[in-house]
Amino acid sequence: MSDSRTAAWDRIEALPQASLSDLFAGDDARVDRLSGRIGWGEGEDAAGIGFDWSKTHLTPDLLDAFDDLAEASDFAARRAELFAGEAINVTEGRAAEHTAQRGSGSEASVEEADALRTRMQMLVEAIREGALGDVNHLIHIGIGGSALGPDLAVDALTRDLAYVDCHVVSNIDGVALEEAFAACDPATTLVAVASKTFTTIETMTNAQSAMRWLREGGVSDPHGRVIALTANPERAVEWGVDETRVLPFMESVGGRYSLWSSIGFPVALAAGWDEFAAMLEGAAAVDAHFRDTDGRDNLPLRAAFADQYYARVRGCQTRAVFAYDERLALFPSYLQQLEMESNGKRVTSEGEPLRGPSAPITWGGVGTDAQHAVFQLLHQGTHMVPVDFIASIAPGDALDPAHHAILLTNCFAQGAALMAGGNMSADGKDPAREFPGNRPSATILCDDLDAATLGALIAFHEHRTFANAVLMGINPFDQFGVELGKKMARDIEGGAAEFDASTRALLKASGLG
């Protein structure tokens, strides 16, 4: 770690730790100072997302120190490298060009992304026009980023209208695939196989089972019902997919950042092309803000300041996300991969041991369900857990407005209660009814939860994750941590390795060894 970074951290860690109530006392400008907005559109079409970090422990002095840390970490240079398409993924020697899918990147990469997106649009429109016969169902097979993003977006955007009944299957557990089979008619089903390399064992095993299901269901040419989504089109063609139904994406697009590429095919098919395009537009608005805004006014960077403060200074090992919107039920699961696979590293980009904690554990749920499950710990447990609340001003339903009013008041009340604390006993002295308060939260309040907003939310968290990585000095774009267990599983299958006594006993008990 450079001397300037060490000095910035020393300054951050030495600052006083006032309570939230004290930070609000006498500071009428606190909410305005620690709030911000990213918007898009004009006139009646204007929309956006508001962010409020006033219920966190950020202060002007902390923000000054974190601005210094960002400068000492060469944040502006790393950000420029990201958008220029330079090989910022140093361990794998390649760029990370998910923003090029949305129009921000090197000219050549943006042009290539546009061409590949046009190819996907043409196929989506051809399917909608009947080029592949009647298509009522889509089974999308992938894992990790090839499944989490599509699953989130399809679930969020097709609750009112789905042009195609879409089932996302990731688990190698056959129960998941059988459930999708039971809901679909082979004669009117397409299968999307999403794999960057087209070799992922879980995905390709599920794909082979899908081919058998189609064949046994009377489909004479099962491979003719497959759409391949991959950065390795040659392998997909070798596997049996016609090249006209292979939708490539760029090698420089990482799996957990790939929703914007052809991995988004199920979103475009099920929700409609206009919805997929709107997702890209919302994400592009966040890209522009992140690219062009410096220091604490850069909202993803400001979020990273809070993340780093709680992880390193306050020792918070987890971060919770609660979406007060049923359409975002899968958002915490999506963020788990984005944040923990990106920033769950123990070495820096230079291969040196990481000083301080890496990414906290991301977890969460849906309000108000979570209030009756985990909020006991948040309010009265011994852990300090920073919380993000996400909500939409506009309701997602057409029921009595009381539903949405109760939803929002619960969302806002939880943040207020975490901060204020109190004692609910009659005499104010019962320790079992004591709430210590001083527990931080941030609120992300969307004007509406439409496709553009969903795209903006995802892009915001992508850039927040990158900003955290820069402040820690790590590479967020590799994921070697998932490989060791896979290698050992292959060793078990091939009988090529010796294992510990416990693993040998488990294999024997399961009939596998």
Kindly list the characteristics that best describe this protein.
513 residues; alpha/beta; five-stranded parallel β-sheet; 19 helices; 13 strands; 46% helix
Beta-strand content estimate: 5-15%
Spatial sequence of strands, sheet with the most strands: 1-2-13-10-8-9
Low-confidence stretches: none
Mean pLDDT: 96
* Tally of DSSP helical segments: 19
Main beta sheet strand tally, sense and closure: 6 strands, mixed
Give an overview in words:
The chain has 513 residues and is of the alpha/beta class. The protein has 19 helices and 13 strands. The chain has helices at residues 3-14, 20-24, 30-33, 60-72, 75-84, 107-128, 145-157, 174-183, 201-216, 233-239, 265-271, 273-292, 299-313, 331-343, 375-380, 402-420, 451-472, 483-494, 501-509, and strands at residues 35-40, 47-52, 137-141, 165-169, 189-194, 226-230, 246-248, 318-323, 361-366, 387-392, 422-423, 434-435, 441-446. A 6-stranded mixed sheet has the order 1-2-13-10-8-9, with helices on both faces. Strands 4-3-5-6-7 form a 5-stranded parallel sheet, sandwiched between helices. The chain has a two-stranded antiparallel ribbon with strand order 11-12. It is globular. The protein starts with a helix and ends with a helix.
Topology:
Blueprint: H1 3-14, H2 20-24, H3 30-33, E1 35-40, E2 47-52, H4 60-72, H5 75-84, H6 107-128, E3 137-141, H7 145-157, E4 165-169, H8 174-183, E5 189-194, H9 201-216, E6 226-230, H10 233-239, E7 246-248, H11 265-271, H12 273-292, H13 299-313, E8 318-323, H14 331-343, E9 361-366, H15 375-380, E10 387-392, H16 402-420, E11 422-423, E12 434-435, E13 441-446, H17 451-472, H18 483-494, H19 501-509
Parallel strand pairs: 3-4, 3-5, 5-6, 6-7, 8-9, 8-10, 10-13
Antiparallel strand pairs: 1-2, 2-13, 11-12
